[in-house]
Amino acid sequence: MTDGSKAGLGTMITVAPTGAESDKAAVPALPVTLDELVTTAKECRAAGAAVIHVHIRDHEAKPTLDLDRLKDTVHALREATDLIVQLSTGGAVTDSFERRLAVLDAGPDACSLTCGTVNFGDDVFMNPWGFMKELYAKTQQLGVVPEFELFDFGHIAALHRLLAELGDPYGGHVHCDLVMGVPGGMPGNAATLVQAVAALPRAATWSATGIGRSTLPVLFAAVAAGGHLRVGMEDTISYARGRPVAGNAELVERAAAAAELAQRPVMSPAEARAMLGVPDHH
Ligand code: KMH
Ligand code: ZN
């Protein structure tokens, strides 16, 4: 079981505003330009987010890992907000390992690090052991704080192995994100969440996100179990049955309201930095 010693502080909300899967044409509210991303980031900060998990798009709104664009994005988000900037190293399922490793050269505060391969709808999200190890070692060398993305129970076993072989992350603290309800990964429900949390490294903190229809069950289960929250249009584009998400901020507002009701109100970015061991680059 996690010891929960840092979980009592409040609720850290991460917003994942864009992702690599939705099409701008089909989802007009999706932030895809740098301006749209910065505007979303400011709105989500005001609504209670402390961390932003970033995927970027090119001039045609297609997913890209272009290094110059990533650097500009990190810079612009730091200028406009005090959010912790977490770049995705998952990218899109079509991105090469080389490009995904190079994401860290953009100098983010933090990055995602998925702890194993998983079926991803009709695709496969590839994260073999050798790649995981290389990516983790690079986070340690460059001083980027990883968030361990766990889509399935085998990923939790791989995380234990990674920590045993390569030691603590930069910043000295293990923070995990349970990504639940991906077709091919663990289901998004309360019983699965409780089992997954019980299997995490002892001193780890954790957040959870439920994809699509599992968004609300996972959100409420995570709040009840003392976890942190990730929300955003990367993970769901429906606010309610038949009602598309109007913007990321309303998803953050809903998560913040749930945290407030549970009497674990949202953490500021500064509080989240202290919990995660993320230095302030401002
Ligand atoms: N887009 C998914 C294939 C991450 O950001 O690290 C991978 C993903 C995970 O979104
Ligand atoms: Zn992502």
General description of the model:
The protein is of the alpha/beta class and 282 residues long. It is built from 9 helices and 14 strands. It has an 8-stranded parallel beta barrel, surrounded by 8 helices. A two-stranded antiparallel sheet has the order 3-4. α1 links the parallel β1 and β2. The radius of gyration is 17 Å and the shape is globular. The N and C termini lie far apart (35 Å). The N terminus is likely disordered. Bound molecules: (5S)-5-amino-3-OXO-hexanoic acid and zinc ion. (5S)-5-amino-3-OXO-hexanoic acid binds next to β6.
Q: What tags apply to this protein structure?
A:
282 residues; alpha/beta; 9 helices; globular; disordered N terminus; binds (5S)-5-amino-3-OXO-hexanoic acid; binds zinc ion
Please give the structural blueprint.
Elements: E1 13-15, H1 34-47, E2 51-54, E3 56-57, E4 63-64, H2 67-80, E5 84-87, H3 97-102, E6 110-114, E7 118-120, E8 123-125, H4 129-142, E9 145-150, H5 153-166, E10 175-180, H6 190-198, E11 205-210, H7 215-224, E12 228-231, E13 238-240, E14 243-244, H8 248-261, H9 269-276
Parallel strand pairs: 1-2, 1-12, 2-5, 5-6, 6-9, 9-10, 10-11, 11-12
Antiparallel strand pairs: 3-4, 7-8, 13-14
Helix pairs in contact: 1-2, 1-8
The chain binds (5S)-5-amino-3-OXO-hexanoic acid and zinc ion.
Residues 16, 19, 53, 55, 88, 90, 112, 234 line the site of zinc ion.
